[in-house]
Every structure is written in structure tokens, then in C-alpha cells.
Amino acid sequence: MTMLKNPGAKYRPFPPINLPDRQWPGRQITQPPRWLSTDLRDGNQALIDPMGAEKKNRFFDLLLKVGVKEIEVGFPASGATDFDFISGLVRGNRIPDDVTVQVLTQSRRDLIETSFASLEGAKSAIVHLYNAVSPVWRKIVFGMGKDEIKAIAIDGAKVLRDQAAKHPGTRWTFEYSPETFSTAEVDFSVEVCAAVMDVLQPSAEHPIIFNLPATVECATPNIYADQVELFARMIPNREAVVISLHTHNDRGTGIAAAELGLMAGGDRVEGCLFGNGERTGNCDLVTVALNMYTQGIDPGLDFSDIDAIAKTVEYCNQLPIHPRHPYVGELVYTSFSGSHQDAIKKGFAAREKQNDTLWEMPYLPIDPADLGRDYEAVIRVNSQSGKGGFAWVLEQDQGLKLPKKMQAHFSKHVQELADSAGRELFAEDIWEVFQRVYHLNTPQHFQLLDYEESKAADGTRMFAGKIAVDDKEQSVSGRGNGLISSVVTTLAESFGVALEIKDYTEHAMTAGSDARAAAYVECVTPSGKTVWGVGIDEDVATASVRAVLSAANEGAG
């Protein structure tokens, strides 16, 4: 079977919502929602190998550390594993006073009663009741009409009410999901939810949570936002309702749907830390939260050690996190492209001169350091990289700030290695090439052994030193207007090597009493060839001498 030439014969477009005066497109997200983690329930049920007690407890501790205050800890009626874990959290006093656990149950008396039993002794808890309401489920799954579907919700709500009355020591909150909300008629979802409200009698002081799940994502996220806004307008006693958003990612827009849903009136977001969940996943809480963070909003969650969080989630779920996953992937702060690297390098240089703390950085919407990541991997070099890439690596790894023209000179050598190696180049690869090209710590023609500088009566400078030529020591001297010109004169008079200095720069490589300096010289030979030299030493004057000898070595080569 192949893809259809006329998919319209098999698939119908999702109808738009008639909401001509919709308000959400003009709104902004200005504060964080309430967050509910479903990692231990929705996320767990989507795993090939569900978590055992040790991994569940480790994940629960992680959620507490991150700062999640509402955690769906399981489906207690599904079996002993979930029931024992949930009751163990309660009995073991593992739930902080400012954290509320939540359990999920279908609208059946025996399952609801089991759910309450698992929470025996809890200070506060949320019991989450659901049943599907959309036409496809009514027709195909249940074979029921609207009244029968609504009756299931009403009956379940009555059991919730009665069970809560039997356990007055716990502060109960009720959540109801018209499951498959995203593919149901909004007015029918409101009708069912209103009937549930009639039974449970929520108030502004003790509201009910209505979860509006995109159980299957079947439309663009703007349609989900329309559904949420319409529901919020139609539901009675809105001040007694918390609207919770539970998006899935079947179309790849679960995050966008949650964000637009918040703009449309949502109060709470449900999902998993990195979007694990059935099929293509739940809403990715980390991404939604850090999207807010990049807009200057404190999400109320702590991801300042994102790598440790990812490591724990990967261990518990036994699922890898994609290297391009937003904010957490291994490569999301990394650029290989030459133009990207050049822009980022300039961005960091500009940041050193800023008088404020605003983050303005090409290609990086968030500072990796805020999430515990370093800058070492921001730029990595391969055959697609440009001179800005290896220059950044040398600066970060060795403290060298190459002049622009020297970057161009060195780039051809890096490119040759990248093309021949056919892989990413690491800092040690680039440093090895740099040392070879500029004769640093390698066998070389001219090698400085010792020297003295003195000032003559006429104001000129005298260089007198010992230079090894092919491992043979020679005493040499020369005179010039300054130290560098005196070394150039020495090379010409003693070895017949003529160089004209075109440019010279220097900088400190490190701070403190043991600081080293780097010096760079651009020279031209009598034949018109441009050669570069580099010198590194604790003394800046000595670094400049070494730089001239380095250029002489390249010219001789």
C-alpha cells in the first residue's frame, strides 16, 4: 500500500471553530501556569519497560528538586505496582507539605474507591476522573449516546463526592477530564463538565480542575486555542474552575498548542519533563518553561543543572534524549556552520563590552550557563566551519585571540585537516595543527635560547642573544629602533633572512602573577609572501622575539 494521490478521499480536514471575536491572538503569556508532571503516570505507561519502585522514587525526588508542586503519581487501580508506590509515598511521609500528588481513575466505582484507598492518610490530594466524550469514541468505542456518556461522568462525580466525605482528614481536590476534548463538540464538553460541577459544587476558594486534553492532536494549535477560549467563555461559574491543558504531540505542535492554550485562558499545564508519553508524546514541560524564561518570565521551576536532570530522566525512562532536543540536547548550543560561528564569536566579544546584563546573542536564545552548560561546546569545528570556529576554539582552549588576518591565514590549514579527516575536529586537533604551522614546541630552524636587550647612546636598541639553527647554537646581535626591529636586523645580518614587519599585536592570555602573553607578527618576505609568527611567553618582550623567529621559520620553510 502506498500514499494516496487523493488523501481527501480518506481523511477529512478538521473543522474550524466559529469564534470571530477570539481574544487570544492579542494576548501574551506574562506569568507561569500551575505545572503538573505526568511523568510517573502518562509518561510511565508509555515506556517499553515501565519504571519499578526504585526508578519511580528517583524520578519523584527529581521532580521535587525541580520544584514541581503537583505530581500525577500513578493509576492506583491499574495494579499493585502503582498502588504500593502511591501508598508508600503517603505512609513514608515522602510528600512535602507544599506538594500535592494526583491519581488518575476511570469513571467506575471500584476504580475510584481503590484510588482513594491508595491515598489514605494524605494531607492533600487530587483525584482525577475521566471519560471520553467525542463522537468517534461515543460511536465506535462505547456505542453510546450523549446522555449515556454524560451519565458516566455524573455517576463518577457522585462517587468522588461520597468517597471524599468518608475521608475528611485529607484536603481533596477534584479534577475531571472530558477525554478526547480536542475532537469533541465544545458545547457538549461544557455540558458534561457543568453536570459534574452540579454534583461537586466547587467554589472560588476550592475550585474544580477541568482538564481539556488534546488526547489526539488532530488540528493546528490555533484551533485548540479556540476550543479553550470558547470553553472558558461557556463554562458556568468560571471563577470556580481551573482550566488545565494536556496536549499531545501527534502533529508535532503539542508545545505550541499549550502556549496558545495559555493565551486562550488556560491556568495549568500538564506534561512530562522532556515530552515522553504515548505515541509522539505529551507536552514537553521543560521547553514550555524555558520558552517563558527566554521572555523574561520566571517559570517557577529550576533547570539550572539541565544535564543532571536529563541523565536522571534517561536512566528512569530508558529512552535517549535527542541531541537536537530544545534546551537540553547535546548539540542545541553548538554551531558547526562558519557564518553561525562568526556571528556567535562576535556576540561574545560584544558582550564583554556591554554595560548591562541583557542577553543579546546571535543564534543563542538562552545563555547555556543559566542551565549549567559551559561554552566549550558552543562552537565545534568540521569541514563546514569557518575561521570564526577554530578561532573561538583556540581562544576558549588556549587563550589565544588571533588577529582577523591571521585567522584567514590559518584557516586553510584547518580546512585541509577537516577535509582529510572527514570528522569533527577537536580542540587538541586544532592546537596540534597550530603548533606545527607556527613552529611552537616543535623542531624548528630558528630557536631562541637566550637574549639580552640594551639601549645604545643614540637611542637605538641592541639585541644580543643565542639562537639555535638546526640544533647548532650561534651567538648573534643586531641593532634597531626597538626590540622587534633589532631582531629583524639580526636575522638579516646573521642568517640572510629578510622580513618586513607589517603588523604586530599582543595580549595577555591569563590573569594573575603567572600570566602568559601572546604576540603575533605579520611579515612580508622579499618575494612578497606574507608569513605569520606567534610567540608565547611569561614575558611579553620575549613573546615578541619568539613571534619574529616563528615568522622567520615559516619564511624559511
Please tell me about this protein's structure.
This protein is an alpha/beta fold. It folds into 3 domains: 31-317, TIM Barrel; 338-437, no CATH class; 446-556, Alpha-isopropylmalate synthase LeuA, regulatory domain (Double Stranded RNA Binding Domain, 2-Layer Sandwich). 39% of the residues lie in helices and 19% in strands. It is built from 17 helices and 14 strands. The strands form 3 sheets. An 8-stranded parallel β-barrel has the order 1-2-3-4-5-6-7-8, surrounded by 7 helices. A 3-stranded antiparallel β-sheet has the order 9-10-11. It has a 3-stranded antiparallel β-sheet with strand order 12-13-14. Helix 8 links the parallel strand 6 (208-214) and strand 7. Helix 2 (53-66) packs antiparallel against helix 11 (306-317), helix 7 crosses helix 8 and helix 16 runs parallel beside helix 17 (540-556). The longest helix is centred in the first third of the chain and has 21 residues, at 146-166.
Percent of residues in β-strands? 15-25%
Number of strands: 14
Any idea how many domains?
A: 3
Going by CATH, the homologous superfamily of the largest domain would be Aldolase class I
Intertermini distance: 66 Å
Structural class: alpha/beta
The largest beta-sheet arranges its strands as: 1-2-3-4-5-6-7-8
Oligomer: single chain
| Mean pLDDT rating | 92
What is the name of the CATH architecture of the largest domain? Alpha-Beta Barrel
CATH topology descriptor of the largest domain: TIM Barrel
| Main beta sheet strand tally, sense and closure | 8 strands, parallel, barrel
Overall, the morphology is elongated
Low-confidence stretches: none
Helix content: 25-40%
CATH class of the largest domain: Alpha Beta
Using the CA coordinates, give the radius of gyration: 34 Å
